[in-house]
């Protein structure tokens, strides 16, 4: 697990890279994001195209993409031993200037993260919901 990736927690569900409503990330955070991205692409075999398409609201029903989304959370140290996402930890690391908007998006979708579903499916549903709640603020790296 990449300890430094805890600093990218905001980037994991607020998912943003530049743009009209999106926060600007420091070079350090972008480097951490790239490291986590590369690790999860390597683990899952997801295509870059499928990742990029999510920013346009195209969420391909593909196990590789779904598990990539879970991997991001896991690599950031946001998954408990039982495989559930620690949303309290997640939101505690969101920068103040994005806190209200990001937590509103996160908490309006976290009910989709239920233990009756596969961990990858849960991550996928939360990501898809996050895009639907605030498409101008969403990105998947």
Automatic annotation (TrEMBL):
One Pfam family linked to the record: PBP_GOBP
Location relative to the cell: Secreted
GO molecular function, a single term: odorant binding
GO BP term, example: sensory perception of smell
One GO location term (cellular component): extracellular region
UniProt entry keywords in alphabetical sequence: Secreted, Signal
Family that this chain belongs to: Belongs to the PBP/GOBP family.
Protein name (database record): General odorant-binding protein 83a-like isoform X3
Organism of derivation: Bombyx mandarina (Wild silk moth)
Source species taxonomy: Eukaryota, Metazoa, Ecdysozoa, Arthropoda, Hexapoda
